[in-house]
Amino acid sequence: xxxxxxxxxxxxxxxxxxxxxxxxxxxxxxxxxxxxxxxxxxxxxxxxxxxxxxxxxxxxxxxxxxxxxxxxxxxxxxxxxxxxxxxxxxxxxxxxxxxxxxxxxxxxxxxxxxxxxxxxxxxxxxxxxxxxxxxxxxxxxxxxxxxxxxxxxxxxxxxxxxxxxxxxxxxxxxxxxxxxxxxxxxxxxxxxxxxxxxxxxxxxxxxxxxxxxxxxxxxxxxxxxxxxxxxxxxxxxxxxxxxxxxxxxxxxxxxxxxxxxxxxxxxxxxxxxxxxxxxxxxxxxxxxxxxxxxxxxxxxxxxxxxxxxxxxxxxxxxxxxxxxxxxxxxxxxxxxxxxxxxxxxxxxxxxxxxxxxxxxxxxxxxxxxxxxxxxxxxxxxxxxxxxxxxxxxxxxxxxxxxxxxxxxxxxxxxxxxxxxxxxxxxxxxxxxxxxxxxxxxxxxxxxxxxxxxxxxxxxxxxxxxxxxxxxxxxxxxxxxxxxxxxxxxxxxxxxxxxxxxxxxxxxxxxxxxxxxxxxxxxxxxxxxxxxxxxxxxxxxxxxxxxxxxxxxxxxxxxxxxxxxxxxxxxxxxxxxxxxxxxxxx
Length: 585
Known about the structure:
Helix 4 (72-87) links the parallel strand 3 and strand 4 (96-99). Helix content is 35%, strand content 13%. The model has no long low-confidence stretch (mean pLDDT 96). Helix 1 (11-21) crosses helix 12 (358-374) and helix 7 (179-194) packs parallel to helix 8 (238-250). The protein is of the alpha/beta class.
């Protein structure tokens, strides 16, 4: 038996044995981490298999971010198919399957597609709205169990970014605005994913992102969009944004992802972070001594078709360079793997030309192989489809997810009190009103319930922008006028999905009960309004008083809007079946 296939051998010996057998092309295959998708969602089964054959067998790629899947069993089946293809390659290096977040209520093809067959949880800001760190650890542990059942061994998260710019369209994926809170929850989440003291066969590896902190986007516009590459630090607190990553590395994080953004007006190079020597080489590798895997965000080298959209290349500051030159710079500064891209020939070209040494490629290959061995992938190549069906979305996991949805709700105003049981209710924005007595006529209602999205500016000029809600945080006047009319006719209950910190002052002026939520089912919201469940969540970020205050604030500085309407940590606590309780902060 070859040493690398012998589980009784030390991991480092197995790594060196396998590395010594690999060609440059096979090493290069390790350094790419594109997407994969089974047939059935956006492509035929034949096309899906043809693409997998090309990437796994011909290109030698063995890391994939799985999209779609239909359901948990579909993902598990696709995992097994990929592993069967990998087993036919010369060295039989197994596939490492990863995924963006899958357990929330929101889907975005760029940042995470919800899978309804899994347990459903609030978005990450909602986990931060629950006191303590145990909910984060429990959530990550359940992700671990459900991902393991599907064969997913790497979680593309958590986000250790600090939500300092209220307009940032990705803020709801963070643990909020408080740097210390972000750090402690990031650590708890990593521990839950790992499932033990060290990474092992029962672990899901975390990819902490987005180094060196993606929160300070200029005006909150996200760098996924080529029009908005700038990341700014008017407060000069770059170090503050690095602190959660330091805590994550101390807790044993083995992977980190750089962000798209390029820093502007700092001592750092004005190029995307994956190409940024002062950031990756000097801070991440040298100062912080991080020796794990550094993976870029997606498609920095070449473009990719996503439906009707051509996404990438996203190498901000280096758009004028060829893909091979961008790859060389990233490797030189310390990057190990290119997310989204799928062209190992670029690495072969660099080695063949002498631009990058094979010894440097070996450094990255060692890191990538080490994690495959630590996760036990060589010994555990297949998953049981029936286990995926029974584990994913199991009653116990789903109950815990529903409990977290409820615990994350934040009562911001209780002017209307508890919704009386048996009331005739007019509803808006609610799909499942079972259990309520409803009327289609506002004038006949004894109470009115409205579910709203946090405001954003639609149609901002690109397909990418449609998935990244930016612009104003103020509700349109037409929405406020409609709610004002409702408030004159019956007690008003408003629940707002706080994807971003909306300007809520005008809602409070209506005398409404206002609930902040971060991803919750209709039934969870209704039960809370009726007083069937307690309310104990607290805000994970400030709620600004006005857009003027937001526009004056500094993108990199937490808690920087003037005289916020509510401070982070605010929430009115209310016991089940209790009409009013005191605010907590």
